[in-house]
Specification:
This protein is an alpha+beta fold. The chain has 16 helices and 20 strands. Strands 6, 9, 11, 12, 14, 15, 17 and 20 form an eight-stranded mixed sheet that branches. It has a seven-stranded mixed sheet with strand order 10-13-8-7-16-19-18, with no helix packed on it. Strands 3-2-1-4-5 form a five-stranded mixed sheet, sandwiched between helices. A hairpin with a 7-residue loop joins strand 7 and strand 8. Helix 1 runs antiparallel to helix 3, helix 6 crosses helix 8 and helix 11 runs antiparallel to helix 14. The protein starts with 6 loop residues before the first helix and ends with a strand.
């Protein structure tokens, strides 16, 4: 084979550029790898810092957050914000790739949500820092009484919140953006540790932070220090010794007027003096008409409705019959609320009372004040509720003048009273209305998912016998047939009044002179309502027959259950009358066929079921014993359950007291 001269030289010459190109490409790749490695190293270091910050949050934010936890959040996030800003700067050019990294093992879900995770954390951090800056003087004085702070009393507190409205509104705007980002976050694709952090720590903290911001922004307006001027609130003094749906019989109605945070007026009137018979009163609910001979609804019975917002509508309307006053909200409270305040505030010195009023004696003092001394009668036209104003005025004055270092304990007491529904609120403020509804502090009766139970007792006996009546509940839920779940409810009422007291209704012809003005030692007339999920059907029950001689209209009441049409959202109500003689216990049972599609949430992918139950506490009641039994299907595998349950084979048993609303969730799989 003949070769042309210079052919090898030409080939060698042609190869040299190729080698140089390969060399340059390899060099560039090495440089790129070096800088990529350096970038990854920096990102890794920043991720470690963020992980450390997150670990700190996990260890310091409680699972069940309260409004006060917003303070802890504001202290915990600044370092995280700094580390996140650095991390975001490093990864910003690459964030567009994150949605395409779902395939990466273990952390692909986290990478795919990186943009949302970073934005959520940064929005929260900025919001928390703005809020912390605005509220720092308040946090200082409540957490450390010895700290010198610009906030030294109620007036300076109002000024602090009013002056920082711009910063608080900025924090709220950033927080609302965080809520939007949280809604866009696909929680199901995240790794377990990040998912648990979001759902168990961040979400509760966000709820607290959002509510805290709403409270801080709205507080000046609520206490009459905003552009709207002074505010007037109705105070419903509810006596749980005569239990009614929203806390107790409305024994008195007060008017609280606040201007610039100062008490402008505080007055109370006996509810019986607030009738104006020249006005057209609405017809009373049929139970009041039939069992109490009350054909029209008057103010003192206006809280007959278990939904507090519904009762408030009637309260405002009927109060306007005698007072042409613009009302900005309604506040209901019971005797236990006063006890809780006195436990926090300490004894009160009340004018005209020779001893200090304490948490231990306030109820006995009020009961005695409602009756004249032995052998005496009430003065004609006398105000037998003046003692309420005396106590309330002493409390308000002490709150307004006490050391601000006690505000934290007082705020915790108020939150506890709201959670336990010894205090219920309706405020004409849109921001706060949403907070009250979310926290259940508005006393609304509602449910839109899961199983639901509440038992509402209403004393219709013209007496204060609830002072000696105890109640207990047992709820038995049978899920063995997943297509047709059923439940059995047992309600026990025990009356510790004397056994020889006759069950004679008011005007029944039998005279009882004992406790004429504050009758406790009596039979207990109770119209009891039970609310279950919409779609539940009553299948059977054990009820009481009430003889005619025990009824005010001399008409016997058969053992019946009334199907109630009260239009409570997502709920079905059932009612029955029972009378519990002194020294007796009356047991009432009701069996229900439950709507499977509502109370059981099925996950087809895992063949698991979630049963969720909410038990709502009636306002005005104390710690009612509650027992819950849940029967799972045979061969069911329990995946998770709320704390406090005891496993007994295929059954779960919960024993608790209804101090507050209770939520129980059980997740199980069934072959």
């Amino acid at each position: 084979m003949n070769r042309k001269p210079g052919a090898n030289l030409t080939q060698r010459t042609n190869r040299r550029p190729v080698k140089w190109i390969i060399f340059i490409i390899c060099s560039l790749l090495l440089v790129l790898l070096f800088f990529t490695g350096l970038k990854i190293y920096r990102i890794y270091g920043l991720l470690q810092n963020v992980r450390s910050d997150i670990s700190f949050l996990e260890n310091n934010l409680p699972s069940t957050a309260s409004v006060n936890d917003a303070e802890e959040l504001t202290k915990s996030l600044p370092k995280l914000d700094k580390d996140l800003a650095s991390l975001r700067t490093e990864v910003q050019p690459w964030l567009w790739l994150s949605p395409f990294l779902r395939w990466v093992p273990n952390y692909g879900g986290d990478l795919s949500q990186a943009r949302n995770l970073l934005e959520l954390a940064q929005n929260l951090s900025i919001s928390a820092q703005d809020a912390g800056q605005a509220l720092e003087p308040i946090f200082e004085v409540t957490s450390n009484p010895a700290t010198t702070s610009s906030v030294s009393g109620p007036s300076s507190l109002i000024n602090q919140l009013s002056n920082e409205q711009t910063l608080l509104l900025k924090a709220q705007s950033e927080f609302r953006q965080a809520r939007i980002v949280r809604g866009q976050l696909d929680i199901n694709v995240l790794s377990p540790s990040i998912r648990n952090l979001i759902t168990q720590k961040v979400d509760p903290a966000m709820n607290s932070m959002g509510d805290g911001l709403s409270l801080a922004i709205s507080f000046p307006e609520v206490i009459g220090a905003g552009p709207g001027g002074s505010k007037t609130y109705l105070l419903l003094v509810q006596n749980e010794d005569e239990l009614r749906p929203t806390g107790g019989f409305i024994t008195a109605v007060g008017q609280l007027v606040l201007d610039q945070g100062h008490l402008l007026d505080l007055s109370f009137e006996d509810s019986g003096s607030l009738d104006n018979w020249s006005m057209p009163y609405p017809m009373a609910p049929w139970q009041l008409s039939q069992y109490m001979d009350s054909p029209v609804l008057i103010l003192r019975d206006a809280n007959w409705f278990p939904d507090f917002p519904s009762s408030v509508l009637y309260v405002k309307e009927l109060y306007a019959y005698t007072h042409q006053t613009t009302v900005n909200g309604v506040i209901g409270f019971d005797q236990q609320f006063l006890i809780m305040l006195l436990q926090t505030m300490g004894p009160l010195n009340v004018a005209g009372v020779p001893y200090s009023i304490t948490a231990d004696n306030v109820v006995s003092y009020m009961r005695a004040s409602k009756s004249p001394e032995t052998g005496q009668q009430l003065s004609p036209g006398g105000d037998d509720k003046d003692f309420i104003r005396t106590i309330a005025l002493a409390m308000v004055q002490k709150i307004l003048t006490d050391n601000p270092s006690e505000w934290r304990s007082l705020s915790q007491t108020l939150l506890k009273a709201l959670d336990e529904r010894h205090l219920v609120l309706q405020l004409d403020n849109p921001d706060l209305e949403s907070v009250l509804a979310r926290r259940g502090w508005d006393g609304a009766l509602r449910s839109d998912s899961g199983d639901f139970l509440t038992v509402i007792d209403s004393n219709v006996g013209f007496n204060k016998t609830n002072a000696v009546v105890s109640t207990s509940l047992t709820y038995d839920v049978d899920l063995t047939n997943l297509a047709a779940p059923v439940s059995n409810l047992l309600i026990s009422h025990t009356n510790r009044a004397a056994a020889d007291i006759p069950c004679a209704p008011r005007g029944g012809g039998v005279e009882i002179t004992l406790e004429e003005y504050y009758p406790i030692d009596r039979c207990y007339w109770d119209y009891m309502r039970v609310y279950t999920p919409q779609g539940a059907n009553l299948t059977s029950g054990t009820l009481q027959s009430v003889p005619a001689s025990w009824m005010i209209l001399d008409q016997a009441v058969p053992p019946q259950v009334d199907l109630l049409d009260e239009s409570e959202p997502g709920l079905q109500g059932f009612g029955t009358l029972l009378v519990v003689p002194g020294g007796k216990t009356i047991n009432t049972t009701m069996q229900f066929a439950l709507p499977a599609s509502r109370i059981l949430l099925k996950d087809a992918a895992t063949h698991s079921f979630a049963y969720d139950l909410t038990v709502r506490k009636q306002p005005g009641t104390l710690a009612i014993p509650f027992a819950l039994r849940i029967h799972l299907p045979n061969n069911a595998i329990l995946r998770s359950a709320s704390q406090g349950g005891t496993v007994q084979g295929n059954n779960l048993l919960f024993q608790m007291n209804l101090n507050t609303d209770v939520n129980v969730e059980v997740v199980f799989s069934s072959p």
